[in-house]
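yo

u said u wanted the structure for the complex thing, so here. seqs first:
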Amino acid sequence: MFYREAGQFKTSYKADQALMPILQDRIGLSVILIIAFVVIPAFANDFFLTSIMIPFLVFALAAIGLNVLTGFCGQLSLGTGAFMGVGAYAAYKLTTIFPDANVIVMVLLSGVFSAAIGAVFGLPSLRIKGLYLAVTTLAAQFFLEWCFIRIPWLYNYNASGAIEVPHREAFGFVVSGAEATPIVRYFIVLCITVVIAYLMANVLRGRIGRSWMMIRDMDIAAELMGIRPLQTKLMAFAVSSYICGVAGAMMVFFWLNAAEPSSYSISLSFQILFMVILGGLGSLSGSFMGAAFIWILPVFLKFIPGVLGIDLAAETVEHVTFMIVGALIIFFLIVEPHGFARLWQIGKQKLRVWPFPY
Amino acid sequence: MLYDIFIDPFVQMYDMPDFFLQVLWEGFVAGILYALIALGFVLIFKASGVFNFAQGIMVVFAGLTLVGLNENGIPAYLALALTIVAMGVLAYGVERVVMRPLVNQPDIILLMATIGLTYFLIGFGEFVFGGEPKQMITEQLGLPTGSTAIEMGERGLIILQHIDIAAAVIAVIMVTALGIFFNKTRIGRALRAVADDHQAALSVGISLNQIWAIVWFAAGLVALATGIMWGARSDVSFALEIVAFKALPVLILGGFTSIPGAIVGGLIIGFGEKIGELYWGGLVGGGIESWLAYIIALIFLLFRPQGLFGERIIERI
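structre next:
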């Protein structure tokens, strides 16, 4: 009833193959984009932007990156955090070597470095599969983390060993450094995330995306049908690491302002993996939903005791948050192993047939 | 440069055999502890095909429970018994709440469930016992604490911690006991049947749920032993969790389903890591212990994807 695609006829192939052939989808997406671009900037305060929306978008982008590799190409990776770190350190080096260049361009360029490194660590994937591959990506994680600590050139020989984002301006605004306003940061992060998500939506339904899915579903069969496994897997690693690298660079440039090697540790990899699994493997919208759940839920949980008037120590709240998040992860895996994306599909079906049961 | 890489370390090894033997001993002890953690992984993987990421946190949890109970005035041996009971309750709970509803799901979902369990146990452990590191109650448990120095003529001497020797002995006893349990008892045979084929095991009347609870309990006991040993060497803290990741390359080397493999893999990683760190680490700035194990495993995998003792992987369409 509410979500009825019957009667929406297409008269050309172009219309039939559009990204969103169904009217309701287009309306829904437009509403979300209007909220993101107009309503939130107009009404949100700085706290909401800096501690909820910006991290949410950054993590959503990283989750898209990992989803390309794990959800669409079937290669389990635990090195996401390190690949994000490569992006961050590359962006830092680029902006300090070329101080006059536009920071946004540098952030986008930094992904290229992480793509190259991702492709190198993707090489073993030709022989190694599944859990074994997870270990090779763990090698990437720990090795790169070690590099961030031990190679002083990467952080310009700082005494602190951390990277600090320099003050930069672009298009007449302060875009990075401590003085940049949350609203400017928010718009930059939002634009980059939306553009990359749009590009990926098209890549994934095209030839490249389909060949990734063939590799995921059965690599030997895909090989027999003329997909080259080496190129396809390496491309998945490169694209995935590119997106993660950009997300990592955005994380330090537009959110944290400064980062240490420990910001890109294994726990970040796990966090992103959770977002992908809970959101739904192989679903772009799922990446957003997973990121929202994993990032925003703990933030809200921290405020619940205060709202209810219960006085708890900050530590206790954190421990309880850990417990609740862990329990909820298990709960959602049991209820719906295919993630929020599948729940949304079921919801759409309910909307379609409402008020009838089926 | 080439001299530093290929010749100098070996010259050092020859010149200072006492130091080399000490390094080997350190590697051996580290290897035993990695092997113990890996053993917990293997037990659960063998019987249920679940890659149990929570094994690391179970080690911490077992150690914390033991120390926490003792701090509250319960005598050491009673605390030990109560901890064993707690691990049993945990095993039953995990089987009932997590594993049973997720039967037949893809591997990655089960893996994520165990990571969710990890989060839960971290939160729960910190909530109950606090987050700060604790001293293991080594003496109260009757474990040796001293050290012996072995003279090597005029070549120097090697120092052996008694607790390390105890760890090695306990590891050997445990592996032997597990081997006997798996091969000779009725439940052990049922476990192996479940590992081979879930459906076939069900059809001859083996209760999957019961077997899984037993296996998780066994892994809990291994975790407790590991927690005591590791806690005695350093502190009982959540930093141990990172160490548990080291079990992964150990498993890769030994194969996911082989108990002797876990031991051999643990020893190889332990030796490789310590020798690599002390003789070659200085060339690149030190600290290579954090990733050397993974690189060893990675190189190994390229030549033998199923591990040392793993079953051969055959793929069909």
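The mean pLDDT of chain A is 86. Chain A is about 70% helix and 5% strand.
cya
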